[in-house]
Amino acid sequence: MYNILTLNKIAACGLDRLGDNYSITDDMNADVDGIILRSFKMHDMELPASLKAVARAGAGVNNIPIDKCSEKGIVVFNTPGANANGVKEIVIAGMLLASRDIIGGNVWANSLTGDDVSKQVEKGKSNFAGCEIKGKTLGVIGLGAIGILVANAAIHLGMDVIGYDPFLSVNNALKLDRHVKCVNDIKEVFSAANYLTIHVPLLDSTRNTVNAETIELLPDGAVILNFARGGLVDNDAVKAALASGKVKKYVVDFPDNETINYPGIIAIPHLGASTEESEDNCAMMAADEIKEYLETGDIVNSVNFPNCALPMTSVGRVTVIHKNAPSLIAKFTDILSTVNIADMINKSKGNYAYTIINTDGEITKEMADALKAVDGVIGVRVIK
Prior knowledge:
By secondary structure, this protein is an alpha/beta fold. It contains 13 helices and 16 strands. The mean pLDDT is 96. The protein has 3 domains: 1-83 and 275-303, Rossmann fold (3-Layer(aba) Sandwich), CATH 3.40.50; 84-267, Rossmann fold; 305-384, ACT domain (Alpha-Beta Plaits). The longest helix has 21 residues, at 276-296.
């Protein structure tokens, strides 16, 4: 029996995929094997000694103490692409809201009184006129699961699209519409973008990607859209650009005290992935990832350890989380030499590595203890 702690409300269609061998709890003091969460902030949370995996039902993981989890051998998963369509649709909506004063027009229309509302509408509607997005240029920073969908949708809406992603994978490149122009210099995106949307994780290297210097490169009257993370955009720089007219609108899905009730800022209450479909997709993917890892040791979509999988075809299986250091594999194979290694895979990611070993014989407690005693080993699990 595996015990799973949920730190947020997780869609039932996801938890149901775990099956009868799983117990679900919301008791934060319980000894649990895994955690499934959405936006709960774990940084001040005491991590149970029994914890093996954390699955975030969403893409961003800045609410999870990644370094702390890595040091303890806790695998952290996210669900890339599961909410991509929901975010894509709200980005398109954000462009339309910024281009035409739909929100202001709605507020005004609902304020009208009297018997001649229709006449008042016709007389005052010009105050809320805007522009079309067709023929304008959309700059997309980050061409992952969401960025690709946004770029392709914009092409179909008649926009020109320029994209930047220094880590663009071959698979993602093949998914891009052929009319999307990819560039190697992020400044080219800023210089061309009437609309700029950013879709990258919040890291030290990406914080304040949109700042006073890069905003200055934008065409006058540009629109900035942020449905990724608040820290990617320098709020003070955006406010200054709004005041000067350099930027027409800033659409942000992560409002805070600096961005609410400010002229030119359209604050949306973190609705990017708030669709029934996105929540279901994220919950199901998170449940599948944590179940696969607990039951087989295979890792898919981890943010702190390498993706690593091996078919379960032998009598025994042991997984080892360890530092990415030389000579460790030789020590593992020496310890398991009496049971014959049938198959093995080793993958590394930064300072950490992960090894799966299938054996023709049973892996004893003594073997497991010997593996744990190897200098550089963080965690050992005997799967079967």
